[in-house]
Design a protein that fits this description.
The protein is an alpha+beta fold. Helix content is 24%, strand content 46%. A 6-stranded antiparallel sheet has the order 5-4-1-2-3-6. A hairpin with a 2-residue loop joins β2 and β3 (41-50). The termini are far apart.
Amino acid sequence: MSLFAKPEYVEMQLPFTIVTFPEDWEACIIGIEAYGAVLDRMQYYYSCFGANPNYYDELLEVMKNCADKRINIQFKIKNGKIKNYKMDIDSLADAYQDERIRKLELLSWGCKDKSALQIEKER
């Protein structure tokens, strides 16, 4: 472990699900939760995106069909730990063949041991 170790960047394709909560509808937010074992540890990678209100409902309906689709995620790894990650929204637009997805604006992100839906149920 070195303070000055260079980070390593690893790209993976992970399955994902669309996660929406009641308060997301009004704010036109689309949540994407990718999941999988990275560095031998199962994690849930959640990113929250803002969508244009003019096509939010239609886009959300298109994206709910996520069976057999994957999203590219670039992980920044330093000293054997994930320091950051970034979902590749372009890979998602390609998977759905919908250019409106490229216009989504990243609002927040986070990594958890549990799914966002499971955490919400426990509240």
